[in-house]
Amino acid sequence: MNEDANNSPRPKRRARYSGKNPRRFDQKYKELDPGKHPETVAKVIASGKTPAGAHRPICVSEILEALDPKPGQIAVDATLGYGGHAEELLRHIVPGGRLIGLDVDPLELPRSEARLRHAGFAPDVFTAVHSNFAALAKALATLEIPAVDLIVADLGVSSMQFDRPERGFSFKQAGPLDMRLNPSRGEPASSLLAKISEEKLATLLEENSDEPRAAQIAQAILKHRSSLRQTTDLARVVRDTMHGNADAETTVRRVFQALRIAVNGEMSALEAFLRALPACLQPSGRVAILTFHSGEDRRVKKSFKDGMTTGVYVAISEDVIRPTAQEIHSNPRSASAKLRWAIRA
Ligand SMILES: C[S@@+](CC[C@H](N)C(=O)[O-])C[C@H]1O[C@@H](n2cnc3c(N)ncnc32)[C@H](O)[C@@H]1O
After folding, report:
1. Domain segments of the chain as ranges
2. Cα 173–60–147 angle (5° rounding)?
3. Is 256's C-beta closer than 6 angstroms to any atom of ligand 1?
4. Relative to the CA of 181, which ligand 1 atom is closest?
5. Distance between CA 226 and CA 193 in Å, rounded?
6. Which fold would CATH assign to domain 183-263?
7. What span, in angstroms and rounded, lies between the C-alpha atoms of 316 and 114?
8. Is 152's C-beta closer than 6 angstroms to any atom of ligand 1?
9. What is the whole-number distance in angstroms between the Cα of residue 104 and the centre of ligand 1?
10. I want to staple 191 with a disulfide (CB 3.0 to 4.6 A). Which of 14, 106, 187, 342 is the partner?
11. Which residue's alpha carbon is nearest to atom 9 within ligand 1?
């Protein structure tokens, strides 16, 4: 504690404005403190952007229509994220209902838990669980819940994770080449890049993001791998390989997506989740899954179709459901979303 020579406490220093051009992400975006700056948040949303540090839930009305939540039901949000879908579901299942929110990210989970508590959802109504959705059955068993009425999953990464450069998901802001959803497990992207073969990297780019120039890009990345320190180094190598091609940014985005999927074992987690679903759903229970990549959608579609054939499901979405043009316009991050649902026999 600081005290003046005359023993009276020194007045607290006023936080200084750090200049006209703030240098750090958390200084730059007022939206990171939405309570203090609600007008900034409203302005950002109206301009078709997502407030920094927040996440706007996608296909909310389509998911509510598919799940048809009712008071008293037990729901799982397998990918809690910012809690947008969870909050919508909670509003429909109270009174009497309960939602279990899973997320593999130990950094964002407590923030979302606090946000939902602040929104009025007490522990008897909302439980946050740090878990991979691949272990859904185990998470429910720990809570002594045999099966639930509703399950939603919204795959991938949230805006908050992209918006924190230190997580390594963003190619726009410099950060470590990490990309782990759970930074205390597995290996960061830098380790993967340090030892992967060119052939394997090309396959990974093709399978995880349909990258048409996979071989060329894999070769360029590995040629420069000793100089890849930060996310922006990787982005620069990919851009340089594209020689000013108009698609360069899309290619950078695809490379980051493919690496992130590999670093987090996202495809195998999805497969385990799809296998676990029938046993975790009550008879007539419903599941809705939002995907953002053809590899994910293919797996969901096949699993639901197979479930119809074997009688595990009684109904599935005939076609994939897409966000409306209006939603894509107001939230461009929704553009590649695809929704499918199924109802348990
Ligand atoms: C697109 S966000 C979900 C956003 C959320 N629906 C909302 O409205 O705020 C995806 C979330 O799923 C989490 N996630 C990704 N893979 C996961 C997995 N295998 N198990 C559990 N959570 C996962 C990510 O950490 C991220 O928070």
Report:
1. 60-159+266-344, 183-263
2. 105
3. no
4. 25
5. 9
6. DNA polymerase; domain 1 (1.10.150)
7. 35
8. no
9. 7
10. 187
11. 82
To test the pocket of ligand 1, the residue of 104, 111, 179, 331 to mutate (highest count of ligand atoms within 8 Å of its CB) is 104
> Ligand 1: which residue has its CA nearest to atom 8?
84
Would you tell me how many other CB atoms lie within 10 Å of the CB of residue 29? Answer: 18
| Cα–Cα distance measured from residue 168 to residue 166, given in angstroms and rounded to the nearest whole number | 5
Which residue, by CA, sits nearest to atom 16 of ligand 1?
Answer: 156
In angstroms, rounded to a whole number, what is the distance separating the alpha carbons of residues 151 and 142? Answer: 17
Q: Which CATH number fits domain 60-159+266-344: 2.170.8.10, 3.40.50.11190, 3.40.50.150, 3.40.50.1000?
A: 3.40.50.150
Q: Is the CB of 163 under 6 A from ligand 1?
A: no
pLDDT digits (tens), the chain, 345 positions: 332 333 444 545 544 445 555 555 555 555 555 556 656 655 665 555 566 667 899 999 999 999 999 999 999 999 999 999 999 999 999 999 999 999 999 999 999 999 999 999 999 999 999 999 999 999 999 999 999 999 999 999 999 999 999 999 999 999 999 999 999 999 999 999 999 999 999 999 999 999 999 999 999 999 999 999 999 999 999 999 998 788 899 999 999 999 999 999 999 999 999 999 999 999 999 999 999 999 999 999 999 999 999 999 999 999 999 999 999 999 999 999 999 999 999
Residues composing the chain? 345
| Mutation probe of ligand 1 site: the residue of 80, 87, 162, 292 with most atoms within 8 A of C-beta | 80
Instruction: Answer yes or no: is the C-beta of 53 below 6 A from any ligand 1 atom.
Output: no
Helix 214-223 / helix 198-209 crossing angle, nearest 10 deg: 130
Q: What is the pTM of this model?
A: 0.87
Helices within the chain (DSSP H only): 25-28, 38-46, 60-67, 84-93, 109-118, 136-142, 159-163, 189-195, 198-209, 214-223, 231-241, 248-263, 266-280, 294-310, 325-330
